[in-house]
## 1
Amino acid sequence: MSGSSPFPAIAPGARLSERVADTLSAEIRSGRLRPGDKLPTEPELAEQFSVSRTVVREAVSRLKSIGLVESRQGSGVYVLEASIPPLSFDASYAVSKEAVIQMVEVRRALEAEVAGLAAQRRTEADVQAIRDAITTLDQAVQAGGDGVREDVAFHRAIAEAAKNPFLLSTLQYLSRFLHGATRVTRANEARRGDFARQVRDEHEAILAAIEDQDSAAARAAAFNHMNNAIRRIEEADPAFWRQEGAVLARALMVDQAPGAPR
């Protein structure tokens, strides 16, 4: 990047690598760093930003993961042609009750349509898979588990029945975020017997509508399920959010890491 001024030092604080990556990203998106430009070397960037080489390495890795730069063996790191940025979320917003509710709102929009399509397109095998998923979820809860993976599997069985690979891929991508939100909602629901019974009844209502091939009823049942999940979050004991809920909500950040368990 000949002729350009050094980057400003990054003030000490959390997530230094993210802040370095954001600064470099801004340079690329503004055009000050153009396609084909070579980034300064790792030691040079570390000196300019006043951070460690490890921080720079993590920042550059993040830029590679979103397609802004690439490494060329024996040559260095180069800026790529600008492209539509991939869907991503800032993990710093994922540590609050409000963030969990917002994630459930995303689910509400998707799950309602998925359930409606599943009702139209389901086979008998699909219906059995959804029914089996409910049974597996019940067994997991009775055995003392949190039922998170089983709950996710129930909704995935519905998505499979919708026979839309684009919707399925979208849900698979979002699963890294929604899995964490499901962990929070289920932990809250497990604290009250009435909540747990409501969830099971709502699952059965979705299954019944899909089995009846009633698209309108399936959409309504799925929409209602997510609305009620939001209500249950809002009705949670304040102590839940001061203790267990806060810990689980912070874990949503971990779920966003590449390769995090789904």
## 2
Amino acid sequence: MSKLPPHYPRVLTIAGSDSGGGAGIQADLKTFSALGCYGMTAITALTAQNTLGVSAIHGVPPAFLRAQLAAVLDDIGVDAVKIGMLHAPEVVEVVAWAIDTYQLPQVVLDPVMVATSGDALIERETVGVLVEQLFPRATVVTPNLDEAGLLLGRPVSTTDDLDAACADLLAMGARSVLLKGGHLGGDLLTDVLALAGEPATYWQRLTGPRIASQNVHGTGCTLSSAIAAQLALGHPLEEAVQVAHAYIRGAIEAGAAVATGGGHGPLNHGFAPLPMHLLV
């Protein structure tokens, strides 16, 4: 195989559009840019959305999603992929086709199901298809506690629940799981990175004090995008998660005192932007 010429770290987001700019592909592109990567998009759905909630969703036809993916992948290629909002089974199937056809590397699957406002972003019948089609194809799956509860059919609501939830998500076919504990109560939050084939005692636990902020819209999108960016830069998964975790905490803290809209505002994605990297 011939060596690629010097190129930017290429990160593709396959996700929905947030018209308010705080989550979805908008948050993804801001994150990629802030971390020195070249971002591309394949849009799965349009949402009419602001800091108060989602008022409408317009799904992109699967054939057009496939056309977007082919256009980007046939020409530019990718070093990592972030997958977000996939609202319908046929959309999931197109994404699985792209992963297999183009042998997409470093796939971060954020199983977006519920917005920060509480609005549902996925059809119920899509959940099973997503697990079957994408869990085995993803490098890492990054659910929050609400999403893990929907996937497992039981609440995940305490620190003591985290390890069992990770084990059961791995048993559903995931190669690794980053279970995000931001919805836990208390002042100290814990995320768990669990890898298939490793005992729980070797799993990585990322802890930190809760940052008081109303502006947490798009936190999950941003974290998964930051992980994808770090993977595109060549970092191994555990290191990528650590660096992304530090970035997300910085973005929350930097945006905590800023007013944007009347509800859950966005993070400050550009609090410490990096120049564009070059892979050689």
